Amino acid sequence: MQQFPSELKLMPEQASTIAQQVDALFYYWLGITLFFTVLIVAAIILFVVKYRRRAPGEIPRPIFGSMKLETIWIVIPFLIAMSLFVWGAKVYFAQYRIPKDALDIYVVGKQWMWKMQHPTGQREINELHVPMGRKIRLTMTTEDVIHSFYIPDFRVKMDVVPGRYTQMWFEATKPGRYHLFCAEYCGMNHSRMTGTVIVMRPDEYQAWLSGNTSQLSPAQQGEQLFQTLGCTTCHLNGGRDAGGRGPQLAGIFGKPVQLEGGQTVVADENYLRESILNPSAKIVAGYSAIMPTYQGQVSEEQLLQLIAYIKSLSPQSGNAAMTSANAAQAASSPNGQRR
Q: What pLDDT was estimated at residue 213?
């Protein structure tokens, strides 16, 4: 396993699938900036010397406009600007369109540490073990102020915001240890809010997972909490038809939900979070506002566990309820999907 490089580098190592694209766009921007900086400074110096006033009473010769010149310096900057826009949009969508087959890992930021939980239940603080060649999706929130999850070698960064979930993804291409930073000033010990991303070969990652099989997955912990909080008395399979006072949760994740008033929302992580903490904000059509708020009764980690459990009730919900064995098998699969 390689160690952190001690020598100074112009750019961090390219260690993810998106890194080369981000760097290419950056160097294109830099090249255009340097080219026009040199061109403009050189033109200024040339014109200052060539068209300087040589006598106190000298009157400059009139210069008439040129349609050809006007067209050139409109068309060329427009084409350059459009090339930057199109290229930048392509890289942006590559970064922020999260693959459906990604491995879910939950992250909670806190002054001043990062807490991670794997789909198999393993917990880490300021360390994140991931398999090489596997798409990883991070679902993140914070217990206090705004943080920013930043891995320079992967060229990925995302704000972690109180009261909602943000997501980002990456696919590491090289085994090793990589710096993890908080890139948003979050208090006096902000500079100490660092960590390490440890990229392992699939077989090494499988061995790491199998070394800790006693942990419950977030979905299993969420199921226990779901029962402890008494949610099973209202949210029954079959919903109202089965005598439930709340809507059925099986199969709800990722689907549109009809609300009172005719509005429709998608049941994603942020909707589920709001429904737990502020259930009267969005009432499902046909149901009454009888659900109590759990604000202050469940922690951010418990919220993620409840959401993982609800996601596991939907057939399309990736790997929320995976065990250590099949998660390791998925990590070592060539196409990154479960067999």
A: 63
